[in-house]
Amino acid sequence: MRITDVEVLVTCPGRNFVTLRVRTDEGVHGLGDATLNGRELAVVSYLRDHVAPCLIGRDPFRIEDIWQYLYRGAYWRRGPVTMTAIGAVDMALWDIKGKALGVPVYELLGGASRAGVLVYGHASGESAGEAVDAVGRYLDLGYKAVRVQAGVPGLSGTYGVGRGELFYEPAGTGLPREDVWSAEKYLATVPSLFARVRDEYGDEVRLLHDAHHRLTPIQAARLGRDLEPYRLFWLEDVAPAEQQEAFRLIRQHTTTPLAVGEIFSTIHDATVLLREYLIDYLRMTVVHGGGITHLRNAAAYADVHQVRTGCHGATDLSPVAMAAALHLDLSIPNFGIQEYMRHTAETDEVFPHAYTFSGGYLHPGGSPGLGVDYRDDLAERHPYQRAYLPVSRLEDGTMGNW
User: Which pTM does this prediction carry?
Assistant: First the structure.
């Protein structure tokens, strides 16, 4: 079997997705997600102009060798654009191999380690009361774990507060929206939010929260300490993730479990965090972290340090990436939880998939490969629209972390 064609497909069924389709001389094709939110076309060019020509004629079963070729051979390695492109190729090759052998990808990864993949949903509201009510709606849907985000009084926009009950898409067309941020106002409201959720729903539901890289280490330490009475499943991205050593200070002051890593592109971004036991969950994504091949290695390194996985799974990843994450989740021994943000009906139509949700768990299904298809006829109805994530400024106008 040889690779004969590589297509880079762009569609926007409510938001932009970049999909890689790799075709072979035996009629088997594979799909990979190449979406980098707000910088989609940079990956399109990387794939079309630089990667695709290097794949023609290669044996798609040589997944590890091709991964090393794309990573080591480019010299200018790492970074979100490069690793997203490599991740897309890697997913497509696993998809081809599964289809050619007639088995779902998780069977190629050692088989299932569990019956299903525990997922969490996103409950949010402009006020604490609306967020508390939203938690109840997710529990009614069968979720066993819920991330809770609420608007902050005095701020016009707050990260994580969606426009609708099930869908949250922060990217918008036009130039980036500018939000205003105050860590002081935020820190004054979050503990009371979780006190209300616990009072309303008790101790059994797993609760999560995302600070989205916006706090200094000492502010993060304070928040983790203040949230200890409410026994969070995790506190996510509580400080800028690239500052690994800063988590030493945070860890000294709180026992609230810490999760980080959705912006990491390789395991090298997390070595200090793992070696020094500074986090509890590694959140690298199968798209921006170089695909299934590299995420398996990252998960294995995390497992040595008793750290579990919690892969990023927001709507900036297509159903192809969600399926790839689920196959990985099902197979590895140190899986923790999977983020699951539901796509719009238009997206699900463009990307029909085999994975299903039931009783708080997702399963990738038994279809060969990743179990996701791509409807060209429907995708063509949704042309690309330039869009950006928001940016954040402090109340005095200083740029902050969004």
Answer: 0.96
